[in-house]
Amino acid sequence: MTKKITSHQDGCIATVVLDNPKKLNAIDLEMWTGLGKTMANLSKNTELRCIVLRGAGGQAFAAGADISRFAEERSTPEQAAEYHRVIDIAMDAIYGCLHPTVALIEGVCVGGGLEVAACCDMRICGKSSRFGVPIKKLGITMHYGELSRVMQIIGPAAARELLLEGQVFGAERAKEIGFVNRVVDDRAVSAEAFEAARRIADGAPIAQRLNKKFISRLCDPEPIKPLEHEETYHTMTTDDFREGINAFLSKRRPIFKGR
User: Fold this and answer.
1) What would the pLDDT profile of 113-168 be if each residue is shown by its tens digit?
2) What CATH number belongs to 204-250?
3) Continuous H helices in the chain
């Protein structure tokens, strides 16, 4: 697996790092492959309760794709099809991860970096962060798989603005269009993102995972089936549900075990 995607675990919170700081964490095919595999592996780890994704170096979440690699990785329709197949696997692994995810965004978050962040459940950035998908200057399109994740966050009107004007814009505009959840001082981004992760991790993990799943499911226009409705009652059978009720009645903090 590539050394440009790293991960580590601190208790029940894992951190995944896009680690290509000399190129502002620009993502090449090898990194997309490693990101998909890393997220798939972390999703299987039921000890986790939240995953934070970030870029290395503090200057960028990710400055899009590594354009210097396009000649060898993405210069024909056949290569593009394979390239986007790998991207789709990585993005689906983030979006469909069992655990809630938080994008910790410092500095530049454009192109493929913005797409990665769009797959996360929450996005927290600094005041100087910059966003955009200026691919109009490259003469390429955003693949359906990538565009669907972005549109799910900002809707079609803002997606048209994002792609057709191709501007790079600031954190406040990103907040206005609903892309980021929170804008904080640049020096506070890491602390705020990990505090959000701790708040998520404090919740009953089975319920947290199911709430994430249900939100994603409701973005699918297909009607909810009877068996899916029944799944919403599953938490009533868990030890964590009984612990939550007992803790509330006892006026103490609950201790959830994930069962």
Assistant:
1) 999 999 999 999 999 999 999 999 988 889 998 999 999 999 999 999 999 999 99
2) 1.10.12.10
3) 29-43, 70-73, 77-95, 112-118, 144-160, 171-176, 189-202, 205-218, 226-231, 239-250
- Beta strands 101-105 and 60-63, pairing class: unpaired
What is the pTM for the complete model shown? 0.93
Looking up tokens 């390239």 gives 83
The span from the CA of 136 to the CA of 225, in Å, is 41
Please determine, looking at this structure, whether the domain spanning 5-201 carries the CATH number 3.90.226.10.
Answer: yes
- Domain residues of the chain, as ranges? 5-201, 204-250
How far, in Å, are 206, 228, 239 from residue 54 at the CA level?
Answer: 25, 33, 33
The conformational region for residue 28 under phi > 0 = left, psi -120 to 50 = alpha, else beta, is beta
The Cβ of residue 234 has, within 10 Å, a number of other Cβ atoms equal to 12
- Which position has the token pair 């601190």? 10
Burial class (CB within 10 angstroms; exposed 0-12, middle 13-18, buried 19+) of 241:
middle
Secondary structure of residue 71 in the 3-state scheme: helix
